[in-house]
Amino acid sequence: MTQTETKAQAQPKLWTKDLVLIILVNLCVFTNHIMSLSTFPFFIQSLGGTEAIAGICAAVFSFVAVIVRPFVGWWLDNGVRRTALVIGLLLMGLAPVGYVIVPTLSLAIALRMVHGIGLSFSNSTTATVASDVICRPRFAEGMGYFGMATALASAIAPALGLELMGAFGFKVLYMVAALIAVLSLVLFAGIKAPRVEVPHKKLDLRAIINRDSLPATVTMMIFMFTFGAPENFVAIFASENSLPSGSIYFLVMSAMLLLVRVTLGKLVDEKGEAFFVYSCNASMLVAFLLLAFVPNGVTFILSAVLAGYAFGGLEPSLQSMAVHTADNESRGSANSTFLCGYDIGYGLGGGIAGSLITGMGYSAMWSIVSLACVISVLVYLFWARHSDTSFSKILKAHK
Predict the structure, then answer these.
(1) What is the pTM of this model?
(2) For 231-258, what is each residue's pLDDT tens digit?
(3) CA atoms lying within 13 Å on the CB side of residue 281
(4) ∠ at Cα 177 (220, 73), nearest 5°?
(5) Three-state secondary structure call for residue 258
(6) Are 315 and 220 in contact (CB under 8 A)?
């Protein structure tokens, strides 16, 4: 038997039917979410709103998700998986239908909150189910593949949403988003992951935030201030500055994001998360400065490549750091805590970006928001890399 064959046999099995299906469910969740997200500023404008109101909608969307997530995490820590995901997927299907049935500004904001609640149930649960079915020795690698669904959705959904909006209008766009939520329910029905048996935990408001996941969560939260800006406004920025379309930006960004997760997914297990924290924040900083100071066709595409690398590397490595030491009784709260940080950063980033655009313009917005990358590195450097959940610290101790 060759050395390669011996190594292959020693590797625990990663790919299972349940992992494939939960990745597909996650793909549907984020396709529904991102195709609505990338078109929602245009929808708000069609109802008479401004970029500032669109930013408020992004903040409201994330705010309700943050409020709900810790309670979803507590529910998941009590072994509830299927009911939580079904509730989330139903809400993610109903909200887009509401956008077109009652197209008024006030109700659009209210339904955006419902959509946020649906997302908080859905992706907290899909991440927890993925954590259940991925073998521990290949955990960061598996979470990287799970995160590929986000990459694919980021590639497909903005282009799909913008094309449907342009060709058929908002009614068809949001009905397709609702049908994708229905498809995710069908896929989830095929998952036969073992029932997680855990002792019942009483609801304790002091314990629903998982403290072990906070170092990774805060590092990611600050980075996500940057990501809320292009996700909400790069399509409008492109259309107002005669740049290639927002669809092209998202496609290039997502192709790079997918490439990073396919080729570099094992690095966290082998080397730790520090490389991604430093290089990804630097990459996003440069991406924003290009948009701020030299916006043209070439720098627009280069910015998309850099942003794709940044999010593609940082999000799965920090989520793995937040969750990998959690047991069955704390895995739900670890995932929900991390995603709370994700939502806070994303929502505040989108809200601040919208206000900066209205008050100071796009160039100032890209410049100011880019400073979050510097702060994210400093938080990791002085706190997170020293935590007991850091892959980099654990690997260093074993050498």
Answers:
(1) 0.73
(2) 778 888 998 888 888 778 888 888 888 8
(3) 26
(4) 40
(5) helix
(6) yes
